[in-house]
Amino acid sequence: MALSRTVVESSETILYTDTTAKDLFMLPVGAVPLFASVHVKTAFNGSGTNLLSIGKPGSAAYYASGVSLAETGALLIALNESDTLATRQGIIATFTDSASDATAGRAIVRIVYSTPFKPV
Questions:
Q1: In 1-105, beta strands by DSSP E
Q2: First and final CA of the chain: distance in angstroms?
Q3: What is the DSSP letter of 44?
């Protein structure tokens, strides 16, 4: 029997205090990350740059970098990489506040990926 693929979404919130890599969620073996979206609910208000990186352990900007969190709204992110995962993989996100003075900010980070499944 052949394997089919389905599309799945995982999401987690990142805050202005998440200036070190935050573990968001795990992707399963065989997953293929397709794209990301970032929905800024509360603008990140640091006086310098307010940027987000999305990555994996050991490579903080593997999937995306330089995503502006300075304005509210939704962003669709084309990923830098999109490999079929040979092992379970953690997804991390890091907020960079270049002036280190943000007092507000909240965004939802989503990764949409395909994953194999075996029909019953």
A1: 4-15, 22-27, 32-42, 50-56, 59-68, 73-78, 89-97
A2: 10
A3: -
Spatial contact of 4 and 119, defined as CB atoms under 8 Å apart: yes
**Measured on CA atoms in the order 7, 57, 55, 48, is the torsion positive or negative?**
positive
Contact by Cβ (8 Å): 53, 94: yes
Q: Evaluate whether 72 touches 40 at the Cβ level (below 8 Å).
A: yes
Q: Please name the residue that has the structure tokens 């280190």.
A: 100
pLDDT tens per residue across all 120 residues of the chain: 556 778 899 999 999 999 999 999 999 999 999 999 999 999 999 999 999 999 999 999 999 999 999 999 999 999 998 889 999 999 999 999 999 999 999 999 999 999 877 555
Core vs surface per residue 7-31: b (16+ CB within 10 A) or e: eeebeeebebebeebbebeebeebb
Whole-prediction pTM? 0.90
At which residue do the structure tokens 């270049």 appear? 98
